[in-house]
Amino acid sequence: MAGAKRCLQERGFARTTSRDIAAAANAPLGTINYHYGSKERLLNAALLETLDEWSEKVRSGSAEPVPGSGAGARVESMWARIVESETTDRPLLVASAEALAQAERSAEVRQQLADAFERSRTALAADLHGIEGAEEGGVARAVGSVHMALIAGLTQQWLVDPERAPSAREVATGLRRIARALESGS
After folding, report:
1. Contact, 24 vs 3, CB < 8 A?
2. Overall pTM surpassing 0.70 (yes/no)
């Protein structure tokens, strides 16, 4: 697993071979199939584990109260961690984009990613807004889904055009403006 994670960082999802993983793990080539069934299953597992770790990192501290502020400060703080990670974790984010393309051809990858997205939706709603998954008739899922869409879109912008991608403050400002417009009906 550690060798596969290292290969994802260094070579990406699409360019990693079984031999690369075995060499990175200092293990016989056959151990990949023995333990995981295939290189793809190992890479999928490594990517999902790495994405879960990334999600925890960017969400960490979201629930910490900021004196004199509420959910807005938690959201902006999370967006600042995401924007920072767009630079520090770029190889992982590129590998995740490659994995999304693999999902089109693999029902297993698609299902694993879909399950991870669903877990993240409810975690984001709980961490950032204190909305639990079973509460409020699907509101947690809706709120988490909006954050997931923003994370995906922000990541794409940072991967393609980091010089002009929005900052955390710009994301928060945009969200506040959209929320006001939705509340006022304009």
Report:
1. yes
2. yes
